[in-house]
Amino acid sequence: MSGSALDAALVTAHLLADAAGEIARDHWFAASEAGLKPDGTALTEADTQVETRLREIIAERHPDHGILGEEYGATGLEQDFVWVLDPIDGTRQFAARLMNFGVLIALCHEGRPVLGIIDQPLARARFAAAEGHGATLNGAAITASGTRALSQATVAIANPASFPEEMREAADSIAEAARLTVYDGGCLAYGALARGQVDLCLNGPDLDPYDICALVPIVTQAGGTITDWENRPLTLASEGAILAAATPALHAQALDRLTRHDPVWIP
């Protein structure tokens, strides 16, 4: 992917985040209610309105690019460039008018995430990264910590309810070994890892590509490591459990603990 193409895409990504943030803020302060999708997950008007607007902007600026979004599915996945959108990551929290939600925007080139944004519209905190550009928070360069030992690490683990019973022992093993553990930080935990405040993030198997792709450039461009629980690279086709760490050594320690347990959960 050429530098000029990535530069143009990064401009688009920030425009998308600006548009999404305006809609999300309006809805968060309004007295609207959430509904439910057929699978029982939460859905708000903000989810659908944000994704609709982002698709419009992409169609205007990059008509030859594909799109994969949580609310409206996939178009043009055969294209070299595919945008991956989660209009409100953390819809339950958003619907309850909590602040631990974010907008996720990614661009994949030939299936590989090369650009990502995690945007928290209320705090106006925007984590952004693109290959060769490093990672930033509101335009200022950020880097992951140098933490190498799990015993010295601050660990962010997803909502324990997202781990099926056969995976909980592995997740608990990470939590018990860490210096400090926090729970249910969502996508913002990965931004915190990129800026050196969290050292390791762990999610269970309930993730889809639109939950994952934006996180990858932000973690890796900050110097961190992110894979699935089988140490495979994350791509447009990835789904399920993921592990991110500030350093390769810390990632290896955590991965070792995960694989010590009976891997009946591995797909």
What does this structure look like?
- It is a single chain.
- This protein has 267 residues and is α+β, with helices and mostly antiparallel strands.
- It contains eight helices and 15 strands.
Relevant terms:
single chain; 267 residues; alpha+beta; 8-stranded mixed sheet; 5-stranded mixed sheet; 8 helices; 35% helix; globular; disordered C terminus
Q: What fraction, in percent, of the residue positions are helical?
A: 25-40%
Secondary structural class: alpha+beta
What does the average pLDDT come to? Answer: 93
Strands side by side in the biggest sheet: 4-3-5-6-7-8-9-10
Radius of gyration: 17 Å
Number of DSSP helices?
8
SSE string, helix = H, strand = E? HEEHEEEHEEEEEEHEHEHHEEH
Q: Strand fraction band?
A: 25-35%
Residue stretches low in confidence (pLDDT < 50, at least 5 long) are 262-267
How many DSSP E strands?
A: 15
Principal-axis shape equals globular
Largest sheet: 8 strands, mixed
Termini gap: 32 Å
Gist?
By secondary structure, the chain is α+β, with helices and mostly antiparallel strands.
